Amino acid sequence: MTNMAEDLKAEAPFAGEGLAPAPEDRRRTQRDSPRERKKRTTDAVIYGVLVVLVAALMVPFIWMVSSSLKENNQVLTVPIQWIPSEFVWSNYTDIWTRIPMMGYLQNSLYLAVIITCLQVLTGSLAAYGFSKVRFPGRDVLFLAYIGTIAVPWQAYMVPQYIMMQNLGLTNSFNALILLQAFGAFGVFLMRQYYMTIPDELCEAARIDGLSEYGIWARVILPLSKPALASLALLTFVNTWNDYMGPFIYLTSNRLWTVQLGLRSFVGQFDAEYAMIMTGSVISVIPILVIFLVGQRYFIQGIATSGMKG
Fold first, then answer.
1. Which of 93, 214, 249, 297 is within CB 3.0–4.6 Å of 229 for a Cys-Cys bond?
2. Crossing angle for the helix pair 173-180 and 101-132, nearest 10 degrees?
3. Spatial distance between the Cα atoms of 287 and 268, rounded to a whole number of angstroms
4. With a threshold of 0.85, does the pTM exceed it?
5. What tens digit of pLDDT does each residue of 83-112 get?
């Protein structure tokens, strides 16, 4: 009996040679393979480059925040003093009394909200027509309309102003709202997203008796939240940061936006850069809040809007 047990022990290692390696051994082999090592190295390089790019993009913002907490004569020192020797927190209280900052913010918010709502409405309606409604010359008309994006605004800035002046709309919000209520980029963005929605849904809704407006409102819009959020965010940011439009059409101080209001700190021979940076930081806060709230829909909408042309 003893001799038989010893023979089985001696044969046991050879009996297990044909068995498959354990899961831990397979994972270790995959991790140590040249392909896996190369992939890890590539990922590390990519992440390193992204970190450098993000840091480079954040430098102006960090300098702006730092400058808003300095005395005016310390803003443009060379070399740059990233951390102020003394934090001047009073800048954030003085700016509200130096200029009507609250009124400027309200004007910017009013224009941004109205124009954003109108662009989302008109852009989604036009995009539905260009993507889900068949009519002669649809694609040609769409290409011609999108082609207007390539025309710089400076090329038709003067004719637009003459038109608004003849209509008596200068020095009012109505001129900016009317001119920016429609946008070719918004139509393009929404149309590309609508093309990813199956046409069978619209056909089924037509069979059920829905009108085209009903299909747009009850079928297409509920499925287009990412694209709508993307268009709303882009339009809001563009309108909020607009300087040339209000500068041309708004001459009364009570109608100025925050971008025009900051110009109050620019004199004939000098400028109060600390106050300008303080106002800039305050003006960025609403955009950051809106982006943080809608970033999930924004990223999803940008990622899916070009999936189907």
1. 297
2. 30
3. 31
4. no
5. 888 898 999 999 998 899 999 999 999 999
